[in-house]
Amino acid sequence: MAKQYSPTMVEKSWYAWWESSGYFQADSASRKPPFVIVLPPPNVTGALHMGHALTVVIEDAMIRWRRMSGYNALWVPGLHYAGITTQVVGERELVDIRNDIGHKAFVSEIFKWKERSGGTISNQLCRLGASLDWSREGFTMDEQRSSAANEAFARLHKEGLIYRDYRLVNWDCTLLTSISDTEVEHIHLKEETMLQIPGYSAPVQFGVSISFAYPLEGGLGEVVVATNRIETMLGDTAVAVHPEDKRYMHLHGRYAVHPFNGRRLKIICDAELVDPTLGTGAFKITPAHDPNDFKVGKRHNLPFISIFTDDGKINSNGGAQFEGMPRFTARVCIIEALKAKGLYKDTKSNEMNLGVCSRSALDSVRFKKIEIIPQHYEQEWNRWLENMHDWCVSRQLCWGHRVPAWYVTLEDDQEKILGSDNDRWIVARNECMARLEAQKKYPGRKFELHQDPDVLDTWFLSSLFAFTVLGWPHDTADLHSFYPTSVLETGHDVLLFRIAQMVMMGLQLCGDVPFQKVYLHPIVCDMRGQKMCKSLGNVLDPLEAKMKDYPYGIAECGADALRFALISYASQSDRIKFDINRVVGYRRWCNKLWNAIRFAMGKFGDHYNPPATATVDVSLMPPVCKWILSTLNEATAKIITALEAYRFSDATSAVYFWWQYQLCDVFIEAIKPYFSNDPQEFESARAASRDTLWVCLDTGLRLLHPFMPYITEELWQRLPQPKDSCRHDSIMISDYPSVVEGWTTDNHENEMYIVLDAVNKIRSLKPPSETHKRRPAFAHCRGQEMISTILRYQSIIVSLSSISSVKVLKENDETPANCAAAVVNKNLSVYLELKGALNAEVERQRLRKKRNKIQKVQYALTRKMHAAGYLREACQSVQEKDMRELMAISETEEKLDDN
């Protein structure tokens, strides 16, 4: 092994080997439980910055951990076309030619620029160690995604969720907002049912059909209609019958009269809506309050009369008799008023589908179908969705996915302005299908098709990506195996619009939420606390440096140090103030790991055969070996618990603490004497320590791998392999450690805490100039249990404290003279013999004070010599005297050090 860790040497080849070995790929036919993440596709506008890097390293840590834990782990990569942003950047890049070429040529040039930019991003992802399944990579404007976008648009348009006109909307009277069809679920009622409605003290009747009569104009009798919602009759503007229904042929074109306001209601014929076999064959028409009636109203040019206020009360259009009444209160009053006029017929139980506001995107979180982490963002999610409004999905750009809608102009059109007649628009999956649709709509007529020049909103395509990248709308094996995905991990600033749209699209188009959890990480800021973004010019490339904040440059740190630093920042707060010095610190820590393995390799030797499994017999081990295995168990439990709870910084803290402060600083230092002293005396301890060290390194590297993949693979591959073992070829497909029964020994951990506290106290007693000087120490113990503990760990105390010996004193033994003392606990005190060291230290302190005083005088004299020439000679005389005294002080200090 090289004497020092080099990120470049370690990271240069592992990624290509991992990928070529197929370790990143998931199998849709696997019986392992799936764990799936779709990387939020970064925009193709340039290179990744630290915010993207945080997303990447957190997701890779999750994927690597789950892959090692026995899951069929799939991490899908992709790129997003980023409409407006890409066009702006693309135009800047193509500034010399954009005015000289047409629309298609310009888009073609942007595609070329996108390929270059996308290549930069892919390279960055690889260098960060992102274990993405590149065989499933998608681009939101590639052929497959474009086809899926057309399919989604056509389906949503067909279902009335995308429209180009005034449209009837679902309205929530409590939240005072429109809601989309995805947020309406239908309850099937087989019979009369009483339901409790918010805002009403008594239950409301549903599942019934109420029949009543409208008087006919001119004394021609009456026409009986039926409805599930009697209150909507206040907004009726017509009565519809089937044109071939003989019962009503004499009424075609005549009028009924509204009993409460005198409004004339035309008798219209509509074969598309009316089924003459249902009820009386006559249907009341309320265009403003029923989707089917809305279409009838459009076809027959009927008035649209809204009778409800925003909070669900009858407005002035409903008539003075009912104005101001809550909707379901008016329902009862209207029936009574109809009875009074002799127009009420009957009420029958009626099987029906009742549309209720479920706001499914809301309920997905409310009923824990989706869990948002951190949980406090649920309030923001609920607040936004409860006040959500329709949004525009078109943009007036060149770069983007064209809206799949075509306008039909006929040969004999007087006015051929695009979009002047909303009935001329045809939405289809492609132009060929649009042409077929136009031929059906205008048989035998010549026409031209003009595709809408607008492009789709960038969020529209990104909201589909979680399932289009798995093959939707086709019935693929990936879609069956990997949808819904496991986690969406992203910054908290895109929670509302982006994630909410993804949930809506998943529910509507796939019938299920697109992911089961949402983890929202903090926003990465620069050292001044400003969010990193290109417009501010403070973006920091994950693998490069910005001279503005780091004028002396950044030492080569590598991907592992950067990954660990970013993940350690991911505590559940809103913002990260990024400091490159933290990365530099973890770069040094990588060197510590490197040296730990180098030490171990030297102690293992060429012929060492490790334990066949990662378990060892602890019964015959020295206490320090039992202790380190117990702490390893504790660290493993903490890391797994933290990962499962998405507390990534807690996981990195636990693995760092164990490696740094327990394995390297204590265990490795404690076992060194076993390898350097008498081979006969320490043979048993040396063998147990060697096995324990191998188990710790093998397990510890696997614990660390999700956070630092490169260095852990490099070091794990160098560890000796047990003979006849089934060891995996790579650490990334090895088993993630779990708690081992029998390793946890609380008594050894408690004893070591006392021992390490004693070591720290002894170290603190050493004079600053004698940090490495070995002197005898004493441990004054109260009680046999404390005496036994100190005797058991006597050699470790000597080794870790850098003292010559430690003598155990019983409770009644006399306190040693010439010692510095410190209390460890109520049963243990420690003493360090100093002899003349205390007096020498006092003398050193006196000399330091004298030197400081002389130097202050020297400074003052120098200033006076510059100020007044006639004092120069006198000042020089004092200076010479002081210099002789300073030299004497230095000589005295040297003698003290020698002694």
UniProtKB/TrEMBL annotation:
EC number: 6.1.1.9
Methionyl/Valyl/Leucyl/Isoleucyl-tRNA synthetase anticodon-binding domain ranges (all copies): 626-767
BP GO terms, sorted: post-embryonic development; reproductive structure development; translation
Alphabetically ordered keywords of this record: Aminoacyl-tRNA synthetase, ATP-binding, Ligase, Nucleotide-binding, Protein biosynthesis
InterPro entries: aa-tRNA-synth_I_CS, aa-tRNA-synth_Ia, Anticodon_Ia_Val, M/V/L/I-tRNA-synth_anticd-bd, Rossmann-like_a/b/a_fold, tRNAsynth_Ia_anticodon-bd, Val/Leu/Ile-tRNA-synth_edit, Valyl-tRNA_ligase
GO molecular function: ATP binding; valine-tRNA ligase activity
Catalyzed reactions per annotation: tRNA(Val) + L-valine + ATP = L-valyl-tRNA(Val) + AMP + diphosphate
Domain Aminoacyl-tRNA synthetase class Ia: 14-578
Gene3D superfamilies assigned: HUPs, Isoleucyl-tRNA Synthetase, Domain 1, Valyl/Leucyl/Isoleucyl-tRNA synthetase, editing domain
Pfam family membership, one: tRNA-synt_1
Protein family (similarity comment): Belongs to the class-I aminoacyl-tRNA synthetase family.
Classification via PANTHER family: VALINE--TRNA LIGASE, VALYL-TRNA SYNTHETASES
Protein name: valine--tRNA ligase
